[in-house]
Design a protein that fits this description.
By secondary structure, this protein is an alpha+beta fold. The chain folds into 2 domains: 69 residues, Glutaredoxin (3-Layer(aba) Sandwich), CATH 3.40.30.10; 134 residues, Glutathione S-transferase Yfyf (Class Pi), Chain A, domain 2, CATH 1.20.1050.10. Helix content is 55%, strand content 8%. A 4-stranded mixed beta sheet has the order 2-1-3-4, covered by helices on one side. Helix 1 links the parallel strand 1 and strand 2. Helix 1 runs antiparallel to helix 6 and helix 3 runs antiparallel to helix 5. It is globular. The N and C termini lie far apart (44 Å). 39% of the residues are buried. The model has no long low-confidence stretch (mean pLDDT 95). It binds glutathione. Glutathione binds next to helix 1 and helix 2. Pfam families: GST_C_2, GST_N_3. This is Glutathione S-transferase.
């Protein structure tokens, strides 16, 4: 029986939601601790100062992928990876492709898209080029039939849903071309299908509620 872990961060964060989906899928008990970027970081929590980080009986763990792998390694009775080493590597390829070549470049637009900072079209043009390149890489491996790697839900779907939703929301907020749907023709269907998974449905509801709370705070 696992001690409940404490997940630090906010449902507004795509990396936080990736870990939260893993916790739910692996049936690990956990509580959520609201911890916003900009607050003073706990000394032990996250050496990078970023969220998410997880407090476990073994100490604090940061970096979402390290947390996911830790949860896999310490949950002997469940897994969100295929059993074969090659298939597992495929899931990690997909996750890294999305994070390094799509989410990371797109992240440069989040201050303008989500936090009211000034928008620069030349920055957006650069980002769109980089994201389109990332989508071409992703297209060489991703199946989206119905899950990103094929028949079964894996951790790569948690990453895919949370990051692609966030990037898509950012581009829409900034009225930029929908390069995601151009690069992944069945993206809409995939994201819709992802919401049939209870873990993703819960993360999505919590995300919407967190935006609602934040918007109410900023308008009151
Ligand atoms: N590579 C990190 C990325 C985490 C990340 O970028 N988190 C964002 C929130 S989604 C953050 O903490 N931003 C605040 C900052 O960069 O200082 C991970 O996988 O955990």
């Amino acid at each position: 029986m696992h001690e409940p872990a404490r997940l630090f961060g906010t449902p507004l964060s795509n990396y936080y939601n990736k870990v939260k989906i893993a916790l739910i899928e692996l049936e690990r008990p956990f509580t959520e601790v609201l911890h916003l970027p900009g607050e003073q970081w706990p000394d032990k929590g996250s050496p990078s100062g970023k969220i998410p980080f997880l407090e476990t009986a073994d100490g604090f763990i940061y970096e979402s992928q390290a947390i996911v792998e830790y949860l896999e390694d310490t949950t002997p009775d469940h897994s969100c990876y295929p059993s074969s080493a090659t298939e597992k590597a495929r899931c990690r390829e997909l996750t890294q492709t999305i994070e390094l070549y799509i989410e990371l470049p797109a992240r440069r637009l989040y201050p303008a898209a989500f936090w009211g900072r000034p928008f620069q079209q030349n920055l957006a043009d650069e980002v769109l080029q980089e994201v389109s390149h990332g989508l071409r890489i992703l297209g060489r491996r991703a199946l989206f039939s119905p899950w990103i790697g094929g028949n079964n839900f894996t951790h790569a779907d948690a990453a895919s849903w949370t990051h692609l939703t966030t990037v898509s929301n950012a581009l829409r907020a900034l009225k930029q071309p929908d390069v995601l749907s151009e690069g992944i023709p069945n993206l809409r269907d995939y994201l819709k299908h992802a919401l049939t998974r209870p873990s993703i449905e819960r993360a999505d509801n919590d995300l919407r509620q967190a935006w609602h709370n934040r918007n109410q705070k900023t308008t009151s």
